[in-house]
Design goal:
With 276 residues, the protein is α/β, with parallel strands linked by helices. It has one domain: P-loop containing nucleotide triphosphate hydrolases (Rossmann fold), CATH 3.40.50. It has eleven helices and ten strands. The strands form two sheets. It has a six-stranded mixed β-sheet, sandwiched between helices. Strand 1 and strand 2 form a beta hairpin. It binds adenosine-5'-triphosphate and magnesium ion.
Length: 276
């Protein structure tokens, strides 16, 4: 078996606020994500999904256990190693507006990131490259001149993805990346996420509570409840033959993004045109 891109062993995260009782948010979670695959993490609100995501990025002070990315220990990583790590592993959030600078047009935002990371030799080269990256996520050159508030939610999420990709992200940790979007727009963005996995070899740690989304995206699936893993395995098996009542309940409660996906697959080409 090949070495996984990300390996998490017995991860524990406890929050301690002064004067308040401790909250054990993640209680001994282990998993591995193969390079180029998508691991979906599902579970009800408060089950520790976002905490797990932040801990995998090395952003939780109270994290214990091991997080190993491409053979490197993430918890307690030194400053130089962390800089490279934060390029290769990036987070995609639910609310793309909150993660974009409101005063920068999409093209300028990407160009700035490229310049900061020394990935473009001149302003003109950065601007050209920014347009190329917008194209990668299905946005035409005209979107380079739009401010975040002039973009739809789906378009903003595309810009966000372009920003992560342009610095060379290999693992994307996406915390509910489509749950703020309309169902039809969700389908477009999910199609894009899958395409980035298949065509560019992006590895996904995809967090959500919607099993229909996971059916489309996840190769492996992990079900969390109250900070622990309830079950994990191949997504197809788990979704067709869930072992636990908890997983069955989640399945029964899952909305109908699949119908929109089916419609989207019929009317091909939409995902590239940025109509969302
Ligand atoms: N900064 C914090 N300080 C104290 N407790 C926290 C903090 N962040 C999260 N928690 C607690 O940790 C537990 C897990 O929270 P987390 O946000 O990881 O859940 P989640 O699965 O992402 O939920 P949701 O689906 O609602 O996003 C919850 O009990 C939450 O109240
Ligand atoms: Mg969360």
């Amino acid at each position: 078996m090949t070495v996984p891109l990300l390996r998490v062993e017995d991860l524990r995260v406890t929050y301690r606020a002064p004067g308040r009782r401790r909250v054990a948010a993640v209680k001994g979670v282990s998993f591995a994500v193969r390079r180029g695959s998508c691991l979906g993490v599902v579970g009800e609100s408060g089950s520790g999904k976002s905490t797990l995501a932040r801990a995998a990025l090395g952003l939780e002070e109270g994290a214990r256990g091991r997080v190993v990315f491409d053979g490197q220990e993430v918890l307690g990583m030194g400053r130089t190693a962390r800089l490279a790590f934060r390029r290769r592993v990036q987070m995609v959030f639910q609310d793309p507006l909150g993660s974009l600078n409101p005063r920068l047009k999409a093209g300028a935002a990407l160009a700035e990131v490229l310049r900061v990371h020394g990935l473009a030799r001149s302003r003109a080269a950065a601007a050209r490259s920014a347009v190329d990256w917008l194209g990668t996520v299905g946005l035409g050159a005209e979107y380079a001149d739009r401010f975040p508030h002039e973009l739809s939610g789906g378009q903003r999420q595309r810009v966000n993805l372009a920003r992560a990709l342009c610095v060379g992200a290999e693992l994307l940790i996406a915390d509910e990346p489509v749950s703020a979007l309309d169902v039809s727009v969700q389908a477009h963005i999910l199609t894009l996420l899958k395409r980035l996995q298949v065509e560019r070899g992006i590895t996904w740690l995809l967090i959500g509570h919607d099993l229909a989304v996971m059916r489309h995206m996840a190769d492996e699936l992990m079900v969390m409840r109250a900070g622990k893993v309830v079950e994990q395995g191949a997504a197809d098996d788990l979704l067709s033959r869930p072992h636990h009542d908890y997983t069955r309940e989640l399945l029964a409660a899952s909305p109908r993004v699949e119908e929109a996906l089916a419609r989207r697959e019929e009317s091909d080409g939409l995902a590239r045109s940025g109509t969302d």
